[in-house]
Amino acid sequence: MSPVRTLPSGRVGAYHVPVLLAEIEALLAGASTVLDCTLGGGGHTAALLERGMRVTGVDRDPRALAAARERLADFEGSGQFRALLTNYAALDTGGLSVDERFDGILLDLGVSSHQFDDLARGFTFREGAPLDMRMGTDAETDAGELLNTIDEVDLSALLRAYADEPRAARMAREIVRRRERRPFATADDLVDAIRAVLGPRSGAPDFARIFQAIRIAVNDELSGLEHALPMLRDRLTPGGVLAIISYHSGEDRLVKNAFRDWSTACICPPRQMICTCRGVPLGETLTRRPINATEEEVEGNPRARSARLRAWKLAL
Fold this sequence. Notes:
It catalyses: cytidine(1402) in 16S rRNA + S-adenosyl-L-methionine = N(4)-methylcytidine(1402) in 16S rRNA + S-adenosyl-L-homocysteine + H(+). The chain has helices spanning 21-27, 43-50, 62-71, 73-78, 113-117, 143-149, 152-163, 168-181, 187-198, 204-218, 221-233, 249-262, 295-300, and strands spanning 4-6, 12-14, 33-36, 54-59, 81-85, 102-108, 236-246, 283-285, 291-292, 308-314. The chain starts with a strand and ends with a strand. Helix 2 links the parallel strand 3 and strand 4 (54-59). The chain is globular. It has two domains: 4-114 and 221-314, Vaccinia Virus protein VP39 (Rossmann fold, 3-Layer(aba) Sandwich), CATH 3.40.50; 140-218, Putative methyltransferase TM0872, insert domain (DNA polymerase, domain 1, Orthogonal Bundle), CATH 1.10.150. Helix 7 crosses helix 8 and helix 8 packs across helix 9 (187-198). It has 13 helices and ten strands. The protein is α/β, with parallel strands linked by helices. Strands 3, 4, 5, 6, 7, 8, 9 and 10 form an eight-stranded mixed β-sheet that branches. Strands 1-2 form a two-stranded antiparallel sheet. Residues 1-15 have low confidence and may be disordered.
């Protein structure tokens, strides 16, 4: 059963506690203004609002945004909360002033429970689910169209890069062979192709890994994150904190490398004799290693198992 929390307005809503909530609250404890770049169900934002912070929440999913606004209507009415329909990788064109800065910025890169649980959204490998996986209307294609049109070589590269699949070439070939007989339309089609390559003993972890890879490609998630990281850094106030929860090794690698570079005084090539870069670190990494969910949290919310939290602080 999902936990129940009472908001200051007196309204009660049942929902899953967001991933690594206590850790996010601690990292952003000193913030007055927060930008929640992945509003989703509004769980993190609700907790921050309860602490008295002013929060701007953005999401590319209009249904998620509408649900969060309904849940947080009292905060929005008082001016403590506002919601914007946009992709966090395109904030400057999504209604956010170019010069607006925040004490804390949060990204939770996972798919929300509501998106997973809504069969029609196609994020799940449950029987009969459509192959959709689009997080918002800005996605150029859905999962079915991608699987039915992508070149075999490109599909193999996708599965190798995003799913770490050692049999990527064979799986791509199997998908192409099957779609020539009948287009991929439901999760069953992709699951059957996976089983044909990985064998009958393949199961949920394999399906989740492959489906995640397709979702990342559909929503252009890694290139969007790479593009957004420096822009989000530049939206921090001095001493502000950027906290990012990732669920995929590619996401975590991008975040780790960005935080490392920003925390390094010199980023010139190793063989360069004279420093021509900025010469000073832009800030400091607050998490030497990623923070993972506790066993207790994972027991209550299995989707937290792969979550990795990293945080970085802009210099004063």
